[in-house]
Amino acid sequence: MGVPKHKISKSRGRKRRTHWKLETPQITRCPRCNEPVLPHRACSSCGYYRHRKVLAVAE
């Protein structure tokens, strides 16, 4: 099992972790009801995905 022989400095460890950032989700608008929706998902307010009814939504 590998064990580090030397101390990893703070700057070296932080350089390695610079790409651990969170990304904000991309939000688009539903073309049918204009509600915000995540891409490639059915709209929760109208139930449509790519101009087809895929969810039964109680209104």
Would you kindly provide a written description of the structure presented here, covering whatever features stand out?
Helices cover 12% and strands 14% of the residues. The model has no long low-confidence stretch (mean pLDDT 91). The chain has 59 residues and is α+β, with helices and mostly antiparallel strands. It is rod-shaped. A two-stranded antiparallel sheet has the order 1-2. Strands 3-4 form a two-stranded antiparallel sheet.
What is the element layout, followed by pairings?
Layout lengths: L9 H7 L11 E2 L6 E2 L10 E2 L2 E2 L6
Overall form: rod-shaped
Determine the N-to-C terminus distance. Answer: 60 Å
What is the number of strand segments? 4
How does the helix and strand content classify structurally? alpha+beta
Roughly how much helix do the residues carry, as a percent range? 10-25%
Radius of gyration: 22 Å
Figure out the total of helices: 1
Q: What are the low-pLDDT stretches, counting only 5+ consecutive residues below 50?
A: none
Order of helices and strands: HEEEE
Quote the beta fraction: 5-15%
Mean pLDDT: 91
Largest sheet, in brief, is: 2 strands, antiparallel
Task: Give the neighbour order of strands across the main sheet.
Answer: 1-2
